[in-house]
Amino acid sequence: EVQLVESGGGLVQPGGSLRLSCAASGFSFKSSEMIWVRQAPGKGLEWVSYINNIGTTLHYTDSVRGRFTTSRDNANNSLYLQMDSLRADDTAVYFCARVGTVVTTEVDYWGQGTLVTVSS
Amino acid sequence: EIVLTQSPGTLALSPGERATLSCRASQSVVSRYLAWYQQKLGQAPRLLIYGASSRATGIPDRFSGSGSGTDFTLTISRLEPEDSAVYYCQHYGGSPLWTFGQGTKLEIK
User: Fold this and answer.
1) Would you say B106 and B98 are in contact if contact means Cβ atoms under 8 Å apart?
2) Do B100 and A46 touch (CB under 8 A)?
3) Three-state SS for A48?
4) Cβ <8 Å between A44 and B88
5) Are B76 and B66 in contact (CB under 8 A)?
6) Which chain B positions have a beta carbon within 8 Å of A100's beta carbon?
């Protein structure tokens, strides 16, 4: 069974940092491209970042580029999102998800998400 | 930037009816890169349709996708109470890489 379990969310002050983790199991993590998607309270889905299977190709949405860093540890089946210079509009549930392997642009598995709240 | 506009914003139907959800792109997109997701309250999204019309693993045939160019449709036939959810279309390509529509809320009353 595919599982993606996020952790590391919480309350942080504006300007602060937080590191999210995503533990993967039930599939070949080292062969999978991964993304982070976030959802502000009561809002829709917003793609945040992408990392290829070996961590050499990274892409970010404009609003987080330069502040967020995605990385992975294939030996430990883990995905990370380092978030610095956090702002109030970064408040959201953050999902880690796998890029599908059929068309390779669909997102076929999602974690349950971890809530990040940026507030003083 | 490609913008996906979904309509209607909210749809209220009865069990057994058919739901038709629309996703319109601001410019012509590659159908292969169009997907649909279902998100129930408090849950993660679930992939329903990829490549505009292919059902994901385990998705019942009551769910179907169609369309090309700028207009895409998700059809849910024989509605069940468990179909109550928000449905999102998504496109890959351009900037940002993954773009989602704003969602259609489907209520089964």
Assistant:
1) no
2) yes
3) strand
4) yes
5) no
6) 47, 50
